[in-house]
Amino acid sequence: MKTIYHILFSLLFVLAFVGCDDDDDKVIERNQLKLTASAQSVTLTPDATDDEIISFSWNEATSLGADYTFSYLFQIDIADNNFQSATDVRTFGPNESISYSSAELYDLIVEKWGKTAGEAVYVEARVAAKVEGPKFKYPEIATTKVQITTYKPTSQPLYITGTATTGGTDLNAAEKITELSNGRLYNWRGQLKQGGFKFITTLGQALPSYNKGADNSSVVKRTSETEADDLFQINEAGLYYIYLSLKDMTISYKKLLSCR
Length: 260
Known about the structure:
Layout: H1 2-15, H2 23-27, E1 35-37, E2 41-43, E3 52-58, E4 69-78, E5 90-92, E6 97-101, H3 102-112, E7 120-132, E8 140-149, E9 159-161, E10 175-176, E11 178-181, E12 185-192, E13 195-200, E14 209-212, E15 219-222, E16 232-234, E17 238-245, E18 250-255
């Protein structure tokens, strides 16, 4: 479905610049649609990552008469990429807006588009006023560019501990797990026995820790002794693989088949 939307949107984008034989389009100069960013440049920070840091808004497209209505299609991509790696098309009404948080932009720039963390890049947004009416009309399109500087996440070591681990409940014997993306993504492969496990951030210290959340796939951060100290449970001893995302506060773990 994503591919279909991308193809259709790209086709509309291309058609918008193709000559039109419709006499109405020659008469009406359609340049009313404007796309505006709340800032021309922003710097992302690892603090308050869920707060809105930039928004894009637009007005109404040029009127084509009472028989025609518009829906507004929005996308964003790395600048000068012809929207080949753009986000999914989102549909809005006139005079609306869309906002992005620091975390959302970091994920797009670094993880989706593969740009280096800590560097400044330009992103490009576009909105197309798709026309609905008795005759085909090309969409009116507006674009804008914004400079965004990301940040380099700091390293946050994590250690696995608990009765299911080889170090048991000795917090000084907890085993460090692999940090795939600083402070965000981790994995680990090793032997576990029947019991429970959780993660601590500092050897020898119980808090803060990352514990079992509402279910076996969710993680919560524990910062006080008064909070529940729930552990992820292992019912069958063996070799296990763990993937942990502090970005999404999720975890997956499974027992690996042993080779004979």
